[in-house]
Specification:
The complex is a heterodimer of chains A (229) and B (79).
Chain A lengths: L2 E5 L6 H12 L4 E4 L10 E4 L19 H12 L2 E5 L1 H9 L5 E3 L7 E9 L15 E8 L3 E3 L2 H9 L3 E6 L18 E5 L5 E4 L17 H11 L1
Parallel strand pairs in A: 1-2, 1-3, 3-4, 4-11
Antiparallel strand pairs in A: 5-8, 6-7, 6-9, 9-10, 10-11
Chain B lengths: L1 E8 L6 H12 L12 E6 L5 H16 L5 E7 L1
Antiparallel strand pairs in B: 1-2, 1-3
Classes of the chains: A alpha/beta (229), B alpha+beta (79).
Chain lengths: 229, 79
């Protein structure tokens, strides 16, 4: 699986992503610095987590205007698979590739813990290795993960099966208590209309090996490996 | 030419930071404080001398970077 990982000043999860890709696919991803104007030909482009530009102005706002993003938009149009996690999700919403915005967590705290997610749609290139409705464990580490979209956008996302992950309790129940950051409809991850781009706040790349405390993140990378490689 | 851009959250967008400030004001004994909303102010100095041209440039800046129009409104004051 030819994978490129975009790196901005302040990105800090690129090596976790690289380890996950390596572990599942055996291939070495390429790191692409934000000043590059051409992303190498790739099956998958990953926008990893971190604190690009110190979250100045708005999380992801300045990274979303970097030189490399022009080519990211072009590759998105071509239908190249793109995965944005955490700050990567924030960057993708800031570019307009994905709808909505990620706001300050409702409780104002930075949240760093393992949470449960319900897989809402397994008929996608990102999730087919999971069962539909499966409850998975996935760590989160963010301050601005409170997903907001207006009513119309939300209805479209829900109606088209574009919500792939929701914050849930350990039994997979989507409850207000399980909604760690105040996201509308407990949304943790959404995809674009074509099903080629996924943005999510939790970190599947951090549940890849037994030493991580679980393997629930592998399914996402295995899904991609099967579908794109 | 100096300009001040005020960015505020749109109506209907929840503002947890505003809520926290409202709570803190209440705790300090300020009564009758309702609906606190937090925004940001960005001051910019431009080489521009024409007000119209500055207004156009600043609007472009707001649309492209300074505000996220999914959740925010902006207001431009040329000082």
């Amino acid at each position: 699986m030819k994978t490129s990982i975009l790196v901005f000043p302040g990105t800090n999860r690129e090596h976790d992503m690289a380890a996950a890709v390596r572990s599942v696919s055996g291939d070495e991803p390429a790191m692409v610095w934000h000043t590059e104007t051409q992303i190498p030909q790739s099956d998958l482009i990953i926008v990893p987590g971190g604190f690009s530009y110190g979250d100045y102005l708005r999380s992801g706002a300045i990274a979303a205007r970097s030189p490399v993003v022009k080519d990211l938009l072009a590759k998105a149009k071509e239908g190249v698979k793109i995965l944005g996690v955490c700050n990567g999700f924030q960057i993708l919403t800031e570019t307009g590739i994905l709808p909505g915005a990620l706001m300050r967590n409702a409780g104002l705290n930075f949240i760093c813990k393992k949470t449960h997610l319900r897989v809402e749609n397994n008929e996608t290139d990102f999730t087919w290795a999971y069962e539909d409705g499966q409850t998975i464990l996935c760590p989160v580490a963010h301050h601005d993960g409170n997903y907001f979209a207006d009513d119309e956008t939300l209805a479209m996302l829900e109606g088209d099966g574009r919500v792939l992950f929701r914050y849930a309790d350990e039994n997979g129940e989507v409850t207000p208590e399980a909604n760690i950051n105040g996201s509308r409809n407990n949304i943790a991850g959404i995809m674009n209309a074509r099903g080629t781009i996924l943005g999510m706040m939790p970190h599947p790349e951090n549940l890849i090996e037994d030493l991580h405390g679980g393997l629930d993140g592998r399914g996402l990378f295995e899904s991609l490996l099967e579908k794109v490689a | 030419m100096k300009a001040r851009i005020t960015v505020t959250l749109k109506n209907g967008v929840l503002d947890p930071q505003g809520k926290a400030i409202e709570g803190a004001l209440g705790a300090l004994g300020f009564d009758g404080v309702n609906d606190v909303r937090q925004g940001k102010v960005i001051d910019i100095e431009l080489d521009e001398t024409s007000k119209d041209s500055a207004q156009g440039k600043l609007t472009d800046m707001c649309e492209k970077l300074l505000a996220n129009t999914v959740i925010e409104n902006y207001h431009i004051d040329i000082l």
